[in-house]
Structure formats: structure tokens, C-alpha cells
Amino acid sequence: MAINYHAEDRTITLHTRSSTYQMQIAGTGHVLHLYYGHRVDGMCLDYLHILTDCGFSPNSYENRLRREVSPDILPLEYSAAGCGDYRVPALECMSDAGLVGADLRYVRHEITDGKYALPGLPAAFAEAGEAQTLSLILADAATGLEVELLYGVFEAADVITRAAVFRNNGDAAIRLDRASSLCLDIPFGTGPSGGCWDLLHLHGRHCMERMPERVRLMHGIQTLGSRRGASSHHNNPFAVLMASDAGETCGECIGIMPVYSGNHRTDIELNQAGSVRVVSGIGGDLFAWQLDPGDCFFAPEVILCRTGEGLERLTHLCHDFLNRHVIRSPWKDKKRPLLINSWEAMTCDFNAEKVLKFAEEAAALGIEMVVLDDGWFGARDDDNAGLGDWFANERKLPGGLKPLSDAIHGLGMKFGLWVEPEMVNEDSSLYRTHPDWVLAVPGRKPVMARNQLVLDMGRSEVVAYLYDVISTLIQENGIDYIKWDMNRNIADTFSAALPPHRQMEVSHRYMLGVYALLDRLTREFPEVLFENCAGGGGRFDAGMLYYTPQIWCSDDTDAIERLTIQMGTAVGYPVGTMGAHVSACPNQQTGRTTPFGTRAIVAMSGTFGYELDPAHLSEEERRQVRVWNERYYRFYDLIHRGKYYRLTGIDRQVDYAAWAYVREDGSQALVNLVVTRAHANTHGFHIHLRGLNAQARYRLAEQVIEGCEAPDGTYLGGMDLTGRVFTGASLMIAGFTLRPMRGDAPAAQLLFEQTDAEEM
Ligand code: GLA
After folding, report:
1. What ligand 1 atom has the least distance to the C-alpha of 555?
2. pLDDT of the residue at 195
3. Mean predicted lDDT score pLDDT of the chain
4. Distance between CA atoms of 145 and 81, rounded to whole angstroms?
5. Ligand 1: distance of its center to the CA of 373 in Å?
6. How far is CA 545 from the centre of its chain?
7. Is the minimum distance from the CB of 535 to ligand 1 under 6 angstroms?
């Protein structure tokens, strides 16, 4: 059993393959958190608590004579504001009778087989036998507020999910001002580093999302979050607590990943006792929820996982978990079609003839799907008009989308379409018909972004309308793929459909509407591949991945920039989720020119596709497209089902980036290396492979070097070691050095294959 209750010492223990999580119901009814760390069987770990009388840390009434027992110091399983715990609270609330906070005490618990679900919200799922659920109920006697803590224990996957349900069993309404799903107290001294922790998080901006940053925890509270109405380009919800001595391959790491795409918030507090509290879930200051008597509120899920074996192992746990238990699209296990997207090639400037020519050129190169991006609908000639009018622009596409879709299908290709359902331009018939469908504060001019407004997705009639329009589009035109965009953040969180006391619910109701629409469409059209997007990767999170198996990683398609963006993203999210395309050079975002092969190697480390005009390709580039399409197909399984290894680490100190994909059984490794900055008189690029079988022998089966040719055709790359045989141990321990490569952003792709050959 993954979950055990031990009546004698009143402990509840959750076991995953390599971790133990234990809590204890104290005599007062407080639920104490005892331990989360490497697996320890058959032991009550309450002896780890050190009780000391800390000045100005109060005591519960029952413990008024035991000053060493304070809710301000004790590790608590879940803590509310207002009851003597001054650390960052998981719950803040006030009842209509004026009672502030909650004194949460144990009521009952239940252990069941299977994984709980959260109505209307994305959440991890399990097949029979893969998970157990602990439901732990706490309540506040004064207000009647009940908090049900849910734990989904995935033993084999080494993951615990957390969620919380709030029920008002009292007679007065209760306003939840904060309703987090995860509260985790890590007692002083836990872990081999003696309790010194770093925080690794993924910050960014539009066109430069998810840059990893590792900082030492300071005393006080560090907050990560978004109040933009989307999980954001700026602060991804995923974060990792790393013991200060942890690195890629060693040390304690705890991953925290909210399964939510709206406002989120994670607070990490290093407090007076040297212990760390992590509180995570739905976002703080733009959230409140009114719970009338009898109502309940489901807070979004947070995935929790840990390892003592470093960040690499944590990455593998997250990738496997998202692939198996979060992404629900049938496409997750299917090879995605090799696509070409029209955006960088044509923006909104096209007509049917141009798109067809584009498709024919692409078909001749072996590309399998054309995606018609922004500009095909309403009065859309630029980004000032048309959003909301999801019918074809007859001037550009006479007779609508159907003739074009038929012609593209006639070429043996699939046809994909861009939509931005959540938005509307003032200059659109949708807005003219339903001006009250947008979020806008009465009496104020709305805040504009990209000259567009945000629809009130909390209204069921808006969701129903969008469902009708998009499902009709798909059905009538045989659409095979949808790129679902969201190109601004939300500002005026006022809904014409809600009373004043519910206006703080708007952002979450918005997300519930988006999820309801995605849920319905993806269930109704399982054969359609949905790719998520929000001005690139502005909503790259586990919540969106539940519905859409891939997300456009960034509007920055420059290969060198993408190295950081994709490496940061892949700390938590699997390779197959990252939308990545080869675009034209000079790159539209940076003006940089990189070799075609370098761009292809980087795009292959995601879903792979093209974002350029095939008519503008030279003969040599057309040859390259065919070569790299073939390599993409050949290595698809290795990249998408193999394990991903960062060979130059997250805090890369060198001017090259290297990473590898290794087959689960260690029999094949595809190593990629891109030089990000040229230097004279260098000694080459040294890497240590990982994930190989130490005793086995490996042949360097292929070595492709790209971008090392001088204009006169002279090869400037290093010595070719193709055919040489190494041992797994030599490649992992002694390492491998690629000879110097000269040129602008050259790249190498090396295939090592296990062999029986004896020669070295
Ligand atoms: C966003 C997307 C782009 C493209 C444009 C179209 O920025 O990220 O890929 O679809 O919108 O307006």
C-alpha cells in the first residue's frame, strides 16, 4: 500500500518508489508534518521534531503551559492565518460574521484506491492500480469551514499530487482570500546539506521565456507568481527547491508544479527556526471566492516530487509524469505531423492562391501539414481588427476555407488553422453585437493590448458561442490541427455578469471557462491536434498540457536564443511538448544568421517544423530540408521516448550548449552541441555523456558537423572520429572532446550506438 495509517502513533505515511511523506495527528487535532525525503520504511519519524520555547511564538490554548509547543514553529500539514502561526499561510479567510482566519483541526481521513479528480479543472489521472488517494479533512469549529486535503500518491511514478477542497458547513458566508493547495514545511536541518536550500525558478519575458535562475534562499518570503490572468512568460509556475550542495547528478531536489494556467502563487519562506515553508496554488491578491453556506470550492492541483539524485533525475520524473499522467491527448503517443506555419513567411498578407503555392512548395519538400496562422478571418489585415469573427475573409479566401482545405488535402497534406478564441477586437462584428461580453470596468476606458479586448470566459453563453463557432469550423473544413493563441494579458477583471462581491472571482472563473471550452473541444475532436500558444510560451504550464499536448515555446525562433528557452523549459516539461520550428535567416527577432543545420538540431529538440517561405529557399537549403526531415524521422523515437540529459547544465559556464537523448536501455545516445560564441585558439568542446551502460562498448556511428564551411568550401570542423569505439565508462567518466569548430554558431550531432565490436 502506498498510503498507510498507523493507529498507535496516529501517523499517516505516503510512500512512493524512493520517497516517504509522513504526517501525524497530534493530541490537539493539529496535523503535524513529520517528513518528506528519501524513503524510510516502518518508522514513526516524530523524534525529528525539536521542541524549543521560541519567544514571541504563541501557544494554542491546550498547550498554554507547554511553551515549547507553538503553531508558529511546528511543521504543520496545512496552516491558516489567524491562529498563532505567523508564517506564510496556505489559507486566508473571513466569515460574514466577521471571524478572521481558521483554526484547522483533524476531523477524519480516508484512504481509497485510484486518483481523485477535480471538477472543471485539469488534474493528473491514473489507470487502475497506479495511484491511491488520501483525503484528510480538517475543520474550523467556529465558522464551520471544512478543508479537505487531497493527496494523490503515484508510487511507481514517484510523485504526490496535492489539492484542496473548501466547504462551508456553517450558516454564514465565508470569503476565501487565499486557498492554496500545497503547504509543505521542511523542518530545520532536513537533507544532507543541513537544511541550506536554493531556489531554482524560470523567469522571462515575451520572446525569452523560462530562463533558469538559481538563488540562495534568504530569510523572509520569496514569492513567485503571476497576476496577469495567465501563467505568464514572466514567472513560470514550476519551481525547484535544491539543497545548496545539489547539482545535475546529486543532491536533494523538490519540484513544485501547479497544474494551473491562470494566476498562480508560490511563496517560499525561510523562517526564524531555519525551517522552510512552501505554499503553492492559485494566485493571491487578485483572488477571493465567496463560499455561501453549503458551497464548495476546488483549488487547482499542485504536483510535488523529489529525488536525492539531483536535478537531472527530477527532470526525468517530471517528464515521465507529465507524459503518462497529465497530457491526456491521444496525440501524446503519436508522431506529430511535420508542419509548416505561415506566420513568419506571410503574417496576415496572403490569399488562397499564395497559400496554395506555399503548400505545394512545402509538399514537394516532404512537409506533411500546412498551418494557416493569423489573418484568414473577418476583417483581419493586421492585428487591429477581426478577432472574434471566426469566419473566412472572403476577399482573401473566396468561397471560404473549404476550397483551400480541399486543395491542401488533395496534395496529401493535413490542414491546420490558427484561432484566438478568448479575444476580440472592437472592430469586429462579435464586439458590435455583444459589447458586454468583454471584461471591462464600468466608467473606465479599457486597458488595451495589441489593440484587443478579453472576452469574459466566465460566462457560459460566451463559452457556448465559441464552442459552436470552433466546432463548426473544424467540421465544415476538415481541420486537422488548431493553434490556440492568447495574445494579451488580462487587466480589467470586471464581469458584467457577476455581482460586486464576486468580482474577485473573475480571473479564476475565466480559467474555468477556458478549461470548459478546451475540455469540450478536445473530447469532441480527439483526432484534431491542438497546439497551445500565448504570444509564444506565455501559458506554458501543466494545466494547458492536460488539454493540448504541445505548446508553441516562444515567438523567438532564433536558434541560439532557443537554446536557453528550450533548456529552461525542459527542466520541467517534456521535449515533445515544446513547439519548435526552423525559421529563415537573418532571424526575424534577432537579425542573427545561423547555419541551417544548427537551426534544425535545435528545432528537432522539440516538435520540429518550419516557419519560413519554402519558395525562398536556395537549392542547397532545399537539400538541407530533406536531409533534416529524414534525420527528424529517424531519431524521433530516440528524442521523444529517450531520456533527456543536459550535458552543459542549467548554469552553463561555457560558450557552447550540449545535450543528449539516450534510449531507456542505454543502447543509443544522440548528442547535440551548438557553439554559441566563436573564440580563436580554443581547445575544443568537452562533454561527459550520461545514461550509458558503463561496461558496454559504443561506436561513434555518425558525426554530423554543421556550419563549419568557409565560403570557398574549405571544411573548418574538427577531426572526424566516426567509427571509433569507446566504453560507456570512458564516455561518461573521462568524457569526449569534440575538436574545435570554427564558424558562426556551428553545431554537431553525434550518434553513439552500443556495439559488440572489440576494437577500440
Ligand atoms: C502570436 C503567436 C505567433 C503568431 C501570432 C499571430 O504572437 O505566438 O506564433 O501566431 O500570434 O498573430
Report:
1. 8
2. 73
3. 96
4. 13
5. 8
6. 7
7. yes
Name the burial class of residue 144, with classes exposed (0-12), middle (13-18) and buried (19+) by CB atoms within 10 angstroms of its CB.
middle
Atom 1 in ligand 1: which residue has the minimum CA distance?
535
* Catalytic residue status for 130: no
552 lines ligand 1 (CB under 6 A): yes
Three-state DSSP state, 363: helix
Is residue 374 lining ligand 1, measured as CB closer than 6 Å?
yes
Over 60: is that where the pLDDT of 232 sits? yes
Task: Choose among 483, 530, 640, 526: nearest CA to 576.
Answer: 640
Pick the residue whose CA is nearest to atom 12 on ligand 1: 374
CA-CA distance, 346 to 350, in Å (whole number)?
6
pTM (predicted TM-score)? 0.97
Taking only the tens place, the pLDDT of each residue in 538-595 is 999 999 999 999 999 999 999 999 999 999 999 999 999 999 999 999 999 999 999 9
Placement of cell 517544423 in the chain: 609
**Of 14, 295, 269, which is closest to residue 150 (Cα–Cα)?**
14
| Active-site pick, 248, 541, 555, 558 | 541
| Ligand 1 centroid, distance to 485 Cα (angstroms) | 7
Residue 483 alpha carbon, nearest atom of ligand 1: 10
Task: Give residue-wise pLDDT tens across range 695-733.
Answer: 999 999 999 999 886 555 555 555 678 999 999 999 999
- Alpha-carbon gap, residue 523 to 544, rounded angstroms: 14
Burial class (CB in 10 A: 0-12, 13-18, 19+), 42: exposed
**CA–CA distances in Å: residue 593 to residues 180, 321, 579, 588, 715:** 46, 37, 21, 10, 19
Confidence of residue 191 (pLDDT cuts 50, 70, 90): low
**pLDDT for res 717:** 56
Mind listing the pLDDT tens digit for each residue in 535-545? Answer: 999 999 999 99
What percent of the chain clears pLDDT 70, i.e. is strictly above it?
97
**pLDDT at residue 534, as a whole number:** 98
pLDDT digits (tens, 9 = 90+) for 279-310: 999 997 889 999 999 999 999 999 999 999 99
190 pLDDT tier (thresholds 50, 70, 90): low
d(CA 385, CA 366): 35
Write out the three cell numbers for 332: 501524446
Count of CB atoms situated within 10 Å of the CB of 255: 24
Q: Cell for 562?
A: 532557443
Is 541 one of the catalytic residues?
yes
Q: Which residues are CB-contacts of 323 (< 8 A; sequence separation ≥ 6)?
A: 332, 574, 576
Q: At 759, is the pLDDT very low, low, confident or very high (cuts 50, 70, 90)?
A: low
The pairing of strands 369-372 and 414-419 is parallel
Quick one: pLDDT band at residue 360, thresholds 50, 70, 90?
Answer: very high
CA proximity to 321, closest of 574, 569, 578: 574
Q: Which of 347, 418, 612 to mutate to test the pocket of ligand 1 (most atoms within 8 A of CB)?
A: 418
For strand 668-675 and strand 19-25, is the pairing parallel, antiparallel, or unpaired? unpaired
| 609: Cα separation from own chain's centroid | 21
User: Is residue 487 lining ligand 1, measured as CB closer than 6 Å?
Assistant: yes
- Indicate which atom in ligand 1 lies nearest the CA of residue 373: 10
- Candidate of 533, 539, 611, 612 to mutate for ligand 1, largest count of ligand atoms within 8 Å of Cβ: 533
Which amino acid, residue 338?
Answer: L
Question: Residue 103 half-sphere exposure, CB side, CA atoms within 13 Å?
Answer: 12
Q: What is the C-alpha separation between 242 and 302, in angstroms, rounded?
A: 18
**Among 485, 552, 589, which is best to mutate for testing ligand 1, by the most ligand atoms less than 8 A from CB?**
485
Residue 380 pLDDT exceeds 60: yes
C-beta of 373 in contact with ligand 1 (< 6 A): yes
